[in-house]
Design brief:
With 224 residues, this protein is of the alpha/beta class. The chain has two domains: 1-17 and 64-104 and 145-224, TPP-binding domain (Rossmann fold, 3-Layer(aba) Sandwich), CATH 3.40.50.1220; 18-61 and 112-143, SIR2/SIRT2 'Small Domain' (2-Layer Sandwich), CATH 3.30.1600.10. Helices cover 32% and strands 20% of the residues. The longest helix has 17 residues, at 45-61. It is globular. The structure holds adenosine-5-diphosphoribose (APR).
Length: 224
């Protein structure tokens, strides 16, 4: 069976990484306009680097959980799996998943705003850092900010459209284009979340509960 999976912050919640819109979520503690937009970065690059340096340190200190591990197990099964994530952490990769599509970029990667060069980010980035390729002091986290175009959308649309089953895990379905992928799906659709997302009714089926319980149980059924 061809399966396309979209994950969101909820799959990393039990690894201790905050979500965005839950109680005490990141967007309840930071103004996203200041730390997750190109305008915010232009106004105060030091604040933006500080925000992502903290998230990068939290990500390095975190460990994949049973839900990440279950998806890595699923990828090694007979099924054809496309794993797409809105998350910028690397917990899917550290659980053993390969070829993960990071539509919102990755905390562990850096980008030069002057020449588009990309490289593995240092643990802490600073506005005075120079690009290893063009030496401009224009380095930024390689993450997609509000108002910017998510990565690999063509490949994502294709993977979701050709899937027999599209599964969304741990996302509030508040942010497009990710939230619209359920419409692109041609096969069955399943939402796995702690609580119904904004698009819960667009799915054929729904399973609610913590990802570390519901995802391994679902994967066990699928690979049996
Ligand atoms: N298990 C399963 N789901 C969970 C858990 C858990 N333990 N904890 C929280 N959730 C669910 C919440 O119910 C919520 O629906 O995860 C979802 C998290 O929603 P958001 O915080 O909005 O995160 P996400 O959907 O990934 O946000 C999408 O918004 O700010 C941008 O770029 C950012 O990629 C992010 C995008």
């Amino acid at each position: 069976m061809r399966i396309a999976i979209l994950t969101g912050a909820g799959i990393s919640a039990e690894s201790g990484l905050g979500t965005f819109r839950d109680k005490d979520g990141l967007w309840t503690r930071y103004d996203l306009e200041e730390v997750a937009t190109p305008e915010g970065f232009a106004r105060n690059p030091a604040l933006v680097h500080e925000f992502y340096n903290q998230r990068r340190a939290d990500c390095i200190a975190a460990a994949p959980n049973a839900a990440h591990n279950a998806l890595a197990l699923l990828q090694n099964s007979t099924h054809d799996l496309a794993l797409i994530t809105q998350n910028v952490d690397d917990l899917h990769e550290r659980a053993g998943s390969k070829g993960v599509i990071h539509m919102h970029g990755a905390l562990r990667r850096a980008l030069c705003a002057a020449c588009d060069h990309r490289w593995d980010a240092p643990v802490a980035m600073d506005p005075s850092d120079e690009c290893p390729s063009c030496s401009a002091s224009a380095t930024r986290p390689d993450v997609v900010w509000f108002g910017e175009i998510p990565y690999q959308m063509e490949a994502i649309q294709e993977a979701v459209a050709r899937a027999d089953l599209f599964v969304a895990i741990g996302t509030s379905a508040e942010v497009y284009p990710a939230a619209g992928l359920v419409e692109t799906a041609q096969g069955d659709t399943l939402e796995i979340n702690l609580a119904p997302s904004a698009r819960a009714n667009a799915f054929n089926a729904r399973r609610f509960g913590p990802a570390t319980e519901v995802v391994p149980a679902w994967v066990d059924e699928i690979i049996k």
